[in-house]
Amino acid sequence: MRYIFGLCLAVAAASSCEAQDAAFTGKLLGSEGFVQYLKAGSIVWTPVKSSKLLETGDKVRTDAGAKAEVSLNDNSKISLGSDSVLILDQIAPKENSVEIIAGKLQASVRRVSDRKFMTLTLSALCETSEAVFEVEVDSAGLTAVNVVSGAVQVSDSGNNTITLTSNQRVLVSHENGLHPPPAAVVENTVVQDSVEEFRGSTP
To answer: Does 15 fall in a domain?
Structure first.
């Protein structure tokens, strides 16, 4: 009887974990080097040594030379470079949004119906439905957006907007917005760095 009761508890616990995992908001899949996460509402950063489920408002921080992989519930993947801080702002049926405060990320976004994926920085808003793109924020708040494939709409605080496509790049500052002005904002560039090189690079 005790064996049957114990087995039932084990099955119930496993089912609960599977349901929780299936309904996850985000997941820290893996990390290399010193990576920490901050639970929403907490003030204590916790070192991450294995995969970790994430919720709206949670933060992930990588130290110098570290990197991390984050997956969202729409199968979007985020590769976080070293010296970076990422916030899961909003995960919703029609819109997912993250914020990068510092450092680098590369996002791989797959189309899911009409759901939008947004990346926010101090100076820019990047929006897409399907793309692979990189965002880097320096210590002065200057944002560099580079599109590897697909299309990304980039806006500044003055509501100036440009749509970047494959191998195009733009800079956005908090003070002056898009650089140069929208009419000539796009720079064509050839992306040579692999994903692995990007993830391990230092801002």
So the answer is: no
CA distance linking residue 17 with residue 1, whole number of Å:
24
Q: Is 55 domain-assigned?
A: yes
Q: Assign 59 a pLDDT band (cuts: 50, 70, 90).
A: very high
Number of domains in the chain: 1
Q: Which of 16-20, 33-37, 104-108, 163-167 has the lowest mean pLDDT?
A: 16-20
pLDDT tens-place string over residues 95-148: 889 999 999 999 999 887 778 999 999 999 999 999 999 999 998 889 999 999
Instruction: Please report where in the chains the tokens 């992989």 appear, as a residue.
Output: 69
Q: Is 88 domain-assigned?
A: yes
Q: What is the CATH number of the domain that holds 89?
A: 2.60.120.1440
pLDDT at residue 180 in the model: 55
105 within domain boundaries = yes
Domain that holds residue 184: 25-200
Q: How many angstroms separate the Cα of 98 from the Cα of each of 25, 121, 123, 189?
A: 12, 9, 14, 25
* Residue among 43, 32, 38 at smallest CA distance from 57: 38
